[in-house]
Amino acid sequence: MSLALVQEVAPMFPNLVGAGLVVIGGGIGLGKIGGAAMEGIARQPEAAGKIQTAMIIVAALLEGLAFGALILGA
Amino acid sequence: MKIASKSISFLTLVLVLLTSFSVYGKDGAKKGDPVNTRTEINEYIQHHLKDSHDFHLFSTFDDNGVEHHWGFPLPVMLWGENGFTAFMSSEFHHDDDGTVVVEKGDSRFVKLHSRIYELNAGETAVQFDEEHHAVNASKPFDLSITKSVFGILLIGLLMLFWFSRLARQYKNKQVPTGFGRVLEPLVVYVRDEIAKPNIGESYRKFTGYLLTVFFFIWILNLVGLMPFGFNVTGQIAVTAALAVITLVIYVFSGNKHFWGHMLWMPGIPYVFRPLLGIIELIGTLVIKPFSLLVRLFANITAGHTVVMSLVAVGILMQESLSATGSTIVSLFLSLFIMLIEVLVAFLQAYIFTTLSALFIGMAVADDHHDEELHDELGEEIEDTEVIRKNFT
To answer: Which residue of B has its CA nearest to A71?
Structure first.
């Protein structure tokens, strides 16, 4: 890697790493939501509809956060 | 029969409108010119995501190797320093670098990266600084019918046609026919699954808005995925306008419990109340609409970028995979992402509507906290009326 390229990329580094961290956080969150919803549906299949709605709403809120950070960061 | 023939004539009109091409004879890039494929693809994707002043459908090369752009122009309406001006975007001859200067009265206009600039008085050509920003030009107030505005108007008219027809059929005590049968379950779904559970008793007042916003976003998302479609919900101005409408609705329909709980939260120490009030105020007035607008915008933009990048894989990997191989790979990948995008189109409309309903529901919810009874263990006691009813 040439020095010029490093100098060009280096100032963007904190933003990109921050955006990456937020995406990791979002991924963990989505995984937890999805996992909990699956468990809930497995325990009580008749409540699947309600659980799904709640899951999608929480996932959407989380996604909004992650996207917001991505847009501000990258 | 009458309705059927009417809808056929309407569809024909739309088709005629969409297919009335005009060709721009502007000398574009010559065939065989050395091009950087990566930058070209990048620019193409950027251009696709942006709003534009004309409908560009495709480009061809004629026998002399001159590029021709196919599409149709849209009206440009500007409020500049010398008042109102209107002309067709074809006068720019599909130029996007500020080389073609359009003179109208005393003002001169150039188009630069899908934006129209008005040259300062006395200037004849646009000049740039090092960062390629125009120095001697200012942006006039742009009221043009751009691609997005055209899309919104078209879909608005279509929705007016579909839903007024559906309403007319209900008034005549008919079962909906034709496309109304597709719309009816969706209307019932939005009312019963989104409006009722999230808003509560006063859902009727807001169902109209929720239905409008749901179908508006959903149809425009789908139109964005169509070939020759327009990317309207990927314009941040459009999603911002929708979010602001939701904000205005829930701010102005908020009852005293909503404002009371927001500004002077009961049940916590007095010291924290102003602090929490500030946080809640920012959350309600800024963060909620911001998350609404960013979610829709970012989802649609990301989706379009991914689809176009996967299509571009077919061009970029030609050398390593041969033309057939790269086409198969990019077709296979983009097909399935496209299917996911069809799901996302519905999901984003659903989420926008649900969250709007949720925010409105928070604003109009009655205060039940004082009416709930609790026993010594903190468990909720059933209403005495209910107990009596169940007992007898």
So the answer is: B298
**pTM for this entry:** 0.79
Tell me which chain A residues have a C-beta less than 8 angstroms from the C-beta of B354: 53, 56-57, 60
**Domain boundary residue, one of B127, B144, B161:** B144
Instruction: Give B181-200 pLDDT, tens digit per residue.
Output: 889 999 999 999 899 988 88
Architecture of the domain whose range is A25-74: Up-down Bundle (1.20)
* Whether residue B376 has pLDDT greater than 60: no
CB contact under 8 A, A68 and B291: yes
ipTM for the predicted complex: 0.71
The reply to whether residue B291 touches residue A56, judged by beta carbons under 8 angstroms, is no
Residue ranges of the domains in chain A? 25-74
Query: Is there a contact between B114 and B53 (Cβ–Cβ < 8 Å)?
Result: yes
Q: Say yes or no: B185 and B127 in one domain.
A: no
Last residue of a domain, one of B123, B144, B165: B144
Give the domain extent around B26. 2-144
Total domains, chain B: 2
